[in-house]
């Protein structure tokens, strides 16, 4: 058999640190009777293995096909060693680091099955522990201050591990080996409950108290992974109260259901959708309502956003005496400001909305809203890519320069590139709000610092009034680097190409609300031909006037009037003042130049107004 012995040097790139990769390798190597060593590097990990050729092949195939659940393997390079080293056993060598850090880290993920069974086992030392986690689950992105991903650089640095936790952390055979947020009842964070006016504080049974209040129809602010949620039961009087307090008239709320079976009471769920709901990222998945006419107080649409619990606190709430099976769960923020994530901030800002607060002292360092997506053909289509996905990079074929791309102003996010990685930020919000704009700038700084990116180039939307473009212009001046302005729909074409791995020029049919076009009008239903570098517009739908400019985005009756005016007709809207209607009609018939638009969203809005579905809308999407 000795002639079958060989040696291999293996490089693994991707997210392999802080995800239980080395214990995984250790177990596998033992199982397959291999010898050698492993160590972390800047790009991931490298190892040398000696043993039976077929065992090494089996190792590589398991690594490729069945890696630890939070690992993201970009590539595995393996090379035969010309001389076979004489290794005795298997060792973990200390990490090597050089100047250019490209180490990646994992998003926050849902509590894993192993942790859940401990959470609910009365004999386990972490029974009912609201911060249970391990190498395969728990907070990451939202608790990291800087890299490398070590406890001392996270918000867990304030909680030194007790002896028991430390021995788990140091034992390669343990599933909490190098789990940086590892903790227990004795050494971990604490949870408490208080009324919004601070008159009553309950630290004995905070979760049970929250459950009984939720049942009784109170609105409870619950601290989550990337910020606070406002939670309440589904009864219409409770939901109406939440809408009034949050000044949110129509926008649908998301549901958190105990499990898939419960979610099926409200929605039709395909296997692919169920898979996404149960995935470690636990996004909000838009699902078709079983009965369109039902639950109108939660969502007036035919679909409803549903997610499953993902933090130990949420699991404990749903498990508490089996009292609650579904809750409204909405981001705790005030009209377009960033999600509330600090305790003091919650006490101050949410006191007029929430009746009570479920708080804890593990600090959230980076905000991160829930992700929202739709499933189509087994793939995820994001409406909002945030918790559970960020900061996983989008991997490009070719290496790219270090670029900061600033994106749009509403539903803002940004993207930073380095090497083959595009780091798209979490959802940040509408930059017209000063707090959100500040948060946007802070997050750019945070991403640049953790991924060690110093932009050599800036890109922004061509729109002259976007605050994101304004930020980019200031940065370009301050850092003395070039700024490229990109047409909105060209950016859509290019990002869709990148998403689908297309490199050749292609045709792109782009339908959206609106984006600044070459003629200065708001485009939105365009047929383009082009690639990453440039584009040509081949066609678009007929443009209509937007009387009142941006006012027509919410006052959609204006678009209805504009459409009819084009064909020399008119209509009256019973729920809009006569004065306003005649002013808009006069504007449409005057010689003044009005902004025009060809947005598919605007077309739908105008038609909705003409069909008498509604004259005004308060949100988009
Ligand atoms: Zn776990
Ligand atoms: Zn402990």
How far do the termini sit from each other? Answer: 65 Å
| Subunit organisation of the chains | single chain
- CATH fold field value of the largest domain: DHBP synthase
Helix content: 25-40%
Structural category: alpha+beta
What is the number of independent domains? 5
Named once each, the bound ligands are: zinc ion
Q: Report the β-strand fraction as a percent range.
A: 15-25%
User: What are the segments in which pLDDT stays under 50 over at least 5 consecutive residues?
Assistant: none
Mean pLDDT: 92
Give the number of helices.
Answer: 17
> What's the total number of strands?
27
- Radius of gyration (CA) equals 27 Å
CATH class of the largest domain: Alpha Beta
CATH architecture of the largest domain: Alpha-Beta Complex
Major sheet characteristics: 12 strands, mixed
Please tell me what the overall shape is: globular
């Amino acid at each position: 058999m000795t002639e079958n012995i060989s040696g291999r040097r293996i490089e693994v790139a991707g997210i392999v640190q802080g995800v239980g990769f080395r214990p995984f390798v250790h177990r596998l190597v033992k199982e397959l009777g291999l010898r050698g060593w492993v160590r972390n590097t800047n790009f991931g990990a490298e190892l040398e293995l000696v043993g039976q050729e077929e065992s090494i092949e089996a190792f590589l195939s398991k690594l490729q096909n069945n890696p630890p659940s939070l690992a993201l393997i970009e590539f595995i390079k393996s090379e035969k060693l010309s001389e076979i080293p004489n290794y005795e056993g298997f060792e973990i060598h200390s990490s090597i680091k050089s100047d250019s850090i490209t180490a990646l880290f994992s998003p926050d993920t849902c509590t894993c099955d192993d942790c859940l069974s401990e959470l609910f086992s009365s004999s386990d030392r972490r029974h009912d522990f609201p911060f249970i986690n391990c190498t395969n689950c728990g907070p990451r992105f939202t608790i990291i201050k800087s890299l490398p991903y070590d406890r001392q650089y996270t918000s867990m640095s304030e909680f030194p591990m007790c002896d028991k936790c430390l021995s788990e952390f140091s034992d390669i055979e343990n599933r909490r080996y190098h789990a940086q947020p590892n903790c227990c009842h004795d050494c971990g964070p604490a949870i408490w409950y208080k009324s919004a006016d601070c008159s009553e504080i309950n630290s004995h049974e905070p979760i049970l108290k929250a459950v009984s209040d939720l049942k009784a129809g109170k609105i409870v602010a619950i601290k989550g992974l990337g910020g606070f949620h406002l939670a309440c039961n589904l009864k219409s009087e409770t939901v109406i109260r939440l809408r009034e307090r949050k000044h949110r008239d129509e926008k649908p709320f998301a549901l958190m259901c105990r499990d898939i079976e419960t979610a099926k009471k409200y929605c039709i769920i395909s296997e692919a959708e169920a898979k996404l709901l149960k995935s470690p990222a636990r996004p909000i998945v838009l699902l078709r309502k079983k009965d369109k006419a039902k639950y109108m107080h939660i969502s007036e649409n035919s679909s409803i956003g549903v997610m499953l619990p993902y933090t130990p606190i949420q699991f404990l709430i749903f498990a508490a005496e089996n009292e609650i099976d579904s809750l409204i769960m909405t981001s705790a923020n005030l009209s377009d400001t960033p999600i509330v994530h600090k305790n003091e901030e919650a006490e101050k800002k949410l006191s007029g909305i929430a009746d009570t607060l479920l708080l804890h002292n593990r600090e959230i360092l980076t905000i991160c809203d829930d992700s929202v997506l739709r499933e189509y053909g087994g793939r995820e289509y994001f409406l909002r890519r945030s918790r559970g996905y960020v900061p996983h990079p989008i991997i490009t074929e070719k290496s790219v320069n270090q670029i900061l791309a600033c994106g749009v102003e509403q539903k803002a996010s940004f993207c930073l590139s380095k090497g083959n990685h595009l780091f798209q930020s979490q959802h940040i919000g509408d930059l017209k709000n000063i707090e959100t704009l500040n948060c946007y700038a802070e997050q750019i700084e945070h991403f640049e610092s953790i991924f060690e990116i110093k932009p050599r180039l800036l890109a922004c939307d061509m729109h002259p009034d976007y605050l994101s473009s304004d930020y980019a212009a200031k940065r370009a001046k301050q850092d003395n680097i070039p700024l490229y302005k990109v047409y909105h729909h060209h950016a859509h074409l290019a990002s869709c190409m990148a998403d689908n791995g297309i490199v050749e020029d292609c045709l792109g049919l782009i339908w959206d609300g609106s984006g600044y076009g070459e003629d200065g009008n708001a485009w939105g239903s365009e047929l383009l031909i082009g690639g990453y570098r440039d584009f040509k517009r081949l066609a678009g739908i007929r443009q209509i006037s937007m009387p009142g400019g941006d006012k027509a985005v919410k006052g959609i009756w204006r678009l209805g009037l504009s459409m009819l005016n084009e064909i020399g007709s008119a209509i009256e809207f019973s729920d809009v003042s006569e004065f306003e209607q005649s002013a808009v009609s006069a504007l449409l018939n005057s010689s003044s130049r009005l902004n025009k638009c060809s947005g598919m969203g605007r077309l739908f809005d105008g038609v909705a107004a003409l069909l008498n579905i509604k004259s005004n809308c308060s949100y988009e999407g």
